[in-house]
UniProtKB/TrEMBL annotation:
Keywords: Coiled coil, Exocytosis, Transport. Belongs to the SEC6 family. One of its GO terms (molecular function) is SNARE binding. Residues 14-87 form a coiled coil. One of its GO terms (cellular component) is exocyst. GO terms for biological process: exocyst localization; exocytosis. It comes from Ogataea haglerorum. It comes from the Eukaryota. This is Exocyst complex component Sec6.
C-alpha cells in the first residue's frame, strides 16, 4: 500500500464522526509536540555521532605521528647497530693493546721484583732477627711490632714466587731451574717466620697473663688474611672447573684475581702448633711420674690455663672460629690419653682407680662451673666413656669388697680365738679393751671404703657396697659369733659337771663385752649412714634406710642372743633350786627361793655395772620373766597344792622376788605387773567350784592376754581335781580364750609357759 493511501486511511479512521472534527486542533498540537520531541532527539544523536567521528579522526592523526616517530627510531637503532659493530672491532683492538701494555708492565714489575729479591729477603731476615729470641722463649710482653710487616713482605714474596713458578711451567727447563734456585732462601725465611709463630703459640698463656692482647690480635689478623686468601683460591679453582667457557683468555683473566697458586693453610698450621704444644706439655708431666703425682700436678694449674685461653679467645678470636672449644678439646684429649695410660696398668691399686674416677668427675664439674657448659655439652669432653667408667667402678667395688673381707678376717681370727680360749682375763676398766671388740674396726673398714667410693662420685656403686656390707658381711659377722656363743654356752653347761676350761667363769664377762660391742656397732652404722645420706641424692635415701635396717638387724639379733646366753648362764645355776618349789620342803622354808635369788643377784650386780644401760633393761626383763617362768614351771612336777598354806607361802615368795628384783631397776612397774601372776595362781589354787574359775578367767585374760589354759590345767591337776571337772573347767576357759579378742593384744611372758 502506498504511503499516501496509508495516511488517508489513518485520517479516515480519525474523522468518522462530526465530533471528531473538533479534535483536529488537538491532534495538530500533539503532532507538533511529537515533531519537536523527535527533532530534539535527532539533534542529540547527531551531536554524539559527530563527537565520536571527531575523536576517531584525532586518533588517526596521532597514530600517523607515532608511526612516523617509530620509523625515525628504527632508523636510529639501525644506525647504532652499525656503530656498535664498528666499536666491537675497535674494542678488540684496544683490548689486545691493553693486554700487550699490561704484559709490558708485568715484565717491568717482574724484572724489578727479581732484581730486588735478595734485598727484600734480607730486609725480612733483619725483621725476624729482631723478633726471634735467642733462647726460643718469646717474651710475653713483646709487642712484636714487626710481625705484621714480616707477614706482609713474605706474602708478597711468596705471591711473586708462585707467579714466576706458574710462568716457568711453559718455559724451558733451564729457566725454571733458575727460578727455583733464586727462591731457595725464601723457604728458609718462611720457616723462620713459622718458627716465630710457634714460639708465640708456645708462650700463649703467659702472653694472655700479662694482657698482651695486641699481639694476639696481630696473630689472628694474619690467620684471618691467610684463611680469606685460601678461600678465594678455592673459589677461583671451583669457578674455573665449573666454567663452560672455552675462552682461555677469560679463564686466564679470572686467575689474575688470586695471586697464590696453592693454599698455605696458616690457620691449620697454627692450630697444629697449639695442639703440639699442649701434647708436649702433657708428655713432659707424665714422664717417669707417679700417677697420683701426675694428676696432682695437672690439677694445680689446668683450669687456670683453660680460663686464660677462654679470655684470649673472647678478646682476640672471631666467635665463628670457636677457638676455645678447640683448645678445650685438645687439652681434654691429651688429658684423656694420660688417664687411659694410667688405668691401662693392670697392677694399678684401687686407690689410684678411685683417684682417676674422682679426677674425671671433678674435671666434668669444673668445666661446667667455670665455662658455663651444660651437662650435655660436657659429654664430648669427658675423660672416660660410660663403659670405661662403669668398668673402673666395678673394679673398685670388687677391690673394696675383697679388702673388706681380708681386713675383717684379720680382725675375726684373733677375736674368735680369744673368745674360744678365754685366755685373757677381762679388765675391770671399761676403757681397756679385751681383744674381742670388733665394732671400731668394722666401722673404720666401712668408713674407709665408703669415703673411697664417695670420692669415685657414683652413688649406685656406693649403695651396692653398703648392700654387701650390711646384707652379707654383717650376716657373716652374726653367724660366726653365734657359733662362738653356742660353743661357749656348751662349755658353760658342761662345766657344771666336768669343767675343761679353768677360765670358763670369765664367759659372762666375754659375752657382756660382745653385747656392748654390738651396741657400739649399731651406733656406728647409724652415724655412717647419716653421713652418707647427706652426700647422696634424696632418691637413694629409702634404699639406704632399708639397707641400714637389714644390717643393724643382724647386729641387734646378735646382741639379743648375747642377752639370751647371759640369761641362760643364770638359769643353769638357779634352776636346780627352783625345781624344788611347790614341794613339801618349799612350804616349810624359803631357802630354795632365797638361794636362787642370790644367784641372780650375783650376776645382775656386775652386769648392771658393765652392760650397756639399754641392754641391761632388756636383760632385766628377760631374766625376770624367765625366773618367773621357771618358778611356775615347777608346777609341772604335779606336787599337790596345800591349799591351807599355799597363799601365805606364795605371798612370801612374791615379796622376796619383788624386793630382790626391785634393786636392779628404778621403774618397778614391770615387776608389779608380772608378779600379779602369783595372785592369779593363789586364786586358782583356792577356788572351790567350777563357776569361780569360769567367771574369773576373762579378768585374768585382761592382764595376761595370752594366758594359756595349760597353766590352768596344771594348777587343777596339782589340786588333784577329778579329770571330768578339770576337762569341764579347762574346756569352758578355752572357749572364753578363743572368744577373747582385745583391741590391743599384748604378748606376755606367760605365752612361753609349757605344761608337761
Amino acid at each position: 500500500m502506498a504511503p499516501d493511501v496509508l495516511v488517508l486511511s489513518k485520517v479516515n479512521d480519525l474523522l468518522r464522526e462530526e465530533d471528531d472534527l473538533e479534535r483536529i486542533e488537538l491532534l495538530r498540537n500533539d503532532l507538533k509536540k511529537e515533531r519537536a520531541l523527535v527533532g530534539s532527539q535527532l539533534k542529540i544523536e547527531c551531536d554524539k555521532r559527530i563527537a565520536i567521528i571527531t575523536a576517531v579522526l584525532e586518533n588517526l592523526q596521532a597514530s600517523s605521528k607515532d608511526l612516523k616517530n617509530l620509523k625515525d627510531n628504527l632508523s636510529k637503532v639501525e644506525s647504532l647497530r652499525q656503530q656498535s659493530i664498528s666499536n666491537i672491532n675497535k674494542y678488540e683492538l684496544f683490548d689486545k693493546s691493553s693486554v700487550v701494555y699490561s704484559n709490558f708492565e708485568k715484565v717491568v714489575a717482574t724484572y724489578n721484583n727479581f732484581v730486588q729479591l735478595e734485598q727484600r729477603l734480607a730486609y725480612v731476615d733483619q725483621l725476624l732477627d729482631k723478633e726471634l729470641p735467642e733462647n726460643d722463649y718469646f717474651p710475653e710482653d713483646s709487642p712484636a711490632e714487626s710481625l705484621l710487616p714480616i707477614h706482609y713482605e713474605l706474602n708478597r714474596l711468596r705471591d711473586f714466587k708462585d707467579e714466576l713458578m706458574h710462568l716457568s711451567e711453559t718455559s724451558r727447563a733451564g729457566l725454571r731451574s733458575i727460578v727455583v734456585q733464586s727462591f731457595l732462601r725464601l723457604d728458609g725465611v718462611v720457616a723462620r717466620f713459622e718458627h716465630l709463630l710457634r714460639l708465640i703459640v708456645d708462650n700463649f698463656v703467659s702472653i694472655i697473663g700479662c694482657s698482651n692482647f695486641g699481639l694476639i690480635v696481630k696473630l689472628v689478623k694474619i690467620l684471618e688474611f691467610e684463611e680469606r686468601e685460601d678461600l678465594r683460591l678455592a673459589l677461583m679453582n671451583h669457578l674455573i672447573s665449573q666454567s663452560k667457557s672455552k675462552d682461555e683468555m677469560a679463564v686466564s683473566r679470572l686467575a689474575t684475581y688470586v695471586k697464590r697458586t696453592a693454599p698455605r693453610n696458616y690457620k691449620n698450621l697454627v692450630y697444629g702448633f697449639f695442639r703440639e704444644s699442649i701434647e708436649t706439655s702433657f708428655e713432659a708431666i707424665v714422664q717417669g711420674s707417679d700417677p697420683n703425682e701426675v694428676l696432682s700436678i695437672i690439677e694445680e694449674n689446668y683450669y687456670e690455663i683453660l680460663v686464660a685461653y677462654k679470655v684470649g679467645s673472647e678478646r682476640g678470636f672471631p666467635a665463628s672460629w670457636k677457638f676455645f672449644n678447640k683448645i678445650l678439646e685438645w687439652y681434654q684429649n691429651s688429658l684423656r690419653a694420660v688417664v687411659k695410660r694410667i688405668v691401662a696398668d693392670p697392677t694399678l691399686p684401687s686407690s689410684y682407680i678411685v683417684r682417676v674416677l674422682t679426677f674425671d668427675y671433678d674435671n666434668a664439674q669444673a668445666i661446667r662451673e667455670k665455662f658455663g657448659f651444660t651437662k650435655k655439652q660436657v659429654e664430648p669432653y669427658m675423660l672416660l666413656s660410660t663403659d670405661e667408667r662403669k668398668r673402673l667402678l666395678n673394679e673398685c667395688l670388687e677391690f673394696n669388697v675383697k679388702k673388706t673381707r681380708e681386713w675383717a678376717e684379720n680382725a675375726f681370727g684373733p677375736a674368735l680365738k680369744l673368745f674360744s680360749t678365754m685366755e685373757k682375763e677381762p679388765s675391770d676398766s671399761s676403757s681397756e679393751k679385751l681383744g674381742i671388740e670388733m665394732a671400731q674396726i668394722l666401722i673404720e673398714i666401712l668408713r674407709s671404703n665408703m669415703n673411697t667410693l664417695l670420692d669415685a662420685g657414683d652413688s649406685p656403686i656406693l649403695i651396692e657396697y653398703l648392700q654387701f656390707f650390711c646384707a652379707h658381711f654383717l650376716r657373716q659377722f652374726y653367724d660366726r659369733w653365734i657359733e662362738a656363743l653356742e660353743n661357749g654356752a656348751q662349755q658353760w653347761n658342761a662345766a657344771a659337771e666336768a669343767p675343761d676350761n679353768e677360765n670358763i667363769g670369765w664367759l659372762p664377762r666375754y659375752v657382756t663385752i660382745l653385747a656392748n660391742d654390738c651396741v657400739r656397732l649399731v651406733n656406728g652404722l647409724e652415724n655412717q649412714f647419716k653421713e652418707v645420706e647427706q652426700m647422696v641424692h634424696s632418691k637413694f635415701h629409702p634404699q639406704l634406710k632399708s639397707i641400714l635396717s637389714r644390717g643393724t638387724q643382724h647386729v641387734l639379733n646378735l646382741g639379743t642372743e648375747c642377752l639370751v646366753k647371759l640369761n641362760g648362764f643364770i638359769v643353769v645355776e638357779y634352776d636346780p633350786y627352783l625345781s624344788e618349789v611347790f614341794t613339801k620342803r618349799w612350804y616349810k622354808s624359803d631357802e630354795m627361793v632365797t638361794t636362787s635369788l642370790q644367784i641372780v643377784h650375783s650376776y645382775m650386780v656386775p652386769l648392771k655395772e658393765y652392760l650397756d644401760a639399754e641392754l641391761f633393761e632388756s636383760l632385766f626383763e628377760l631374766v625376770y620373766d624367765t625366773y618367773l617362768l621357771h618358778y611356775l614351771q615347777a608346777l609341772n612336777a604335779k606336787n599337790k597344792i596345800d591349799t591351807k598354806k599355799f597363799e601365805s607361802v606364795m605371798e612370801r615368795d612374791g615379796h622376796l622376788i619383788n624386793t630382790q628384783f626391785s634393786n636392779y631397776v628404778e621403774n618397778t612397774q614391770i615387776i608389779e605387773d608380772h608378779v600379779y601372776i602369783f595372785d592369779i595362781l593363789i586364786y586358782l589354787a583356792t577356788f572351790e567350784n567350777e563357776q569361780q574359775y569360769i567367771d574369773a578367767w576373762p579378768g585374768y585374760l585382761e592382764v595376761f592376754n595370752d594366758l594359756p589354759v595349760d597353766f590352768l590345767r596344771v594348777v587343777l591337776e596339782c589340786k588333784r581335781l577329778k579329770d571330768s571337772r578339770i576337762k569341764f573347767i579347762v574346756g569352758e576357759c578355752m572357749h572364753i580364750s578363743k572368744l577373747y579378742k582385745p583391741e590391743n593384744f599384748t604378748p606376755t611372758f606367760m605365752s612361753n609357759f609349757k605344761a608337761k
